[in-house]
UniProtKB/TrEMBL annotation:
Pfam families: 7tm_4 (PF13853). It is a multi-pass membrane protein. This is Olfactory receptor family 51. PANTHER family: OLFACTORY RECEPTOR 51B2, OLFACTORY RECEPTOR 56B1-RELATED. The gene is OR51. One of its GO terms (cellular component) is plasma membrane. Keywords: Membrane, Olfaction, Receptor, Sensory transduction, Transducer, Transmembrane, Transmembrane helix. It comes from Taphozous nudiventris. It comes from the Eukaryota.
């Protein structure tokens, strides 16, 4: 399932980038290769690469949210069956920490996708800042 998801979600935009002719400067705006930045350098019709990531983010993260919600319902059902209030509090604390880490990742990905899709008139610094927040913030916050 994991390999199928990676193939369906990640491979199509990357392959389509390799087919495009590039006629603009080949200098990226960021210190790392970001799909949205590479798309802007293409001279061909990039409609697929503009629409696919937005649909992908919406469907993938909606499905992820449903699966996470279902798993936490099962976890909470099990935790409430534990006799000790101290054990319940410890398990709930762990669940809240995990949900916070997951939300940090998803919110930055969704924010970056929508900034690049709909923020064409936003200052370039907003795009750069969002990309670095997406790239650096989740790993820094995860240990906390």
């Amino acid at each position: 399932g994991v390999l199928m998801r990676v193939f369906v979600t990640i491979i199509p935009p990357i392959l389509s980038l390799s087919w495009f002719p590039y006629c603009r400067s080949r200098v990226l705006s960021y210190a790392f290769c970001l799909h949205q930045d590479v798309m802007k350098l293409a001279c061909a019709d990039i409609t697929f690469n503009c629409v696919y990531p937005v649909i992908l983010v919406a469907l993938t993260y909606f499905l992820d949210a449903l699966i996470i919600l279902f798993s936490y319902i099962l976890i909470l059902k099990t935790v409430m069956g534990i006799a000790s209030a101290e054990e319940q509090a410890k398990a709930l604390n762990t669940c809240v920490c995990h949900i916070s880490c997951v939300l940090v990742f998803y919110i930055t990905v969704i924010g970056l996708t929508f900034i690049h899709r709909f923020g064409r008139h936003a200052p370039h610094m907003v795009h750069i800042t969002m990309s670095y927040v997406h790239f650096l913030f989740p790993p820094f916050v995860n240990p906390v």
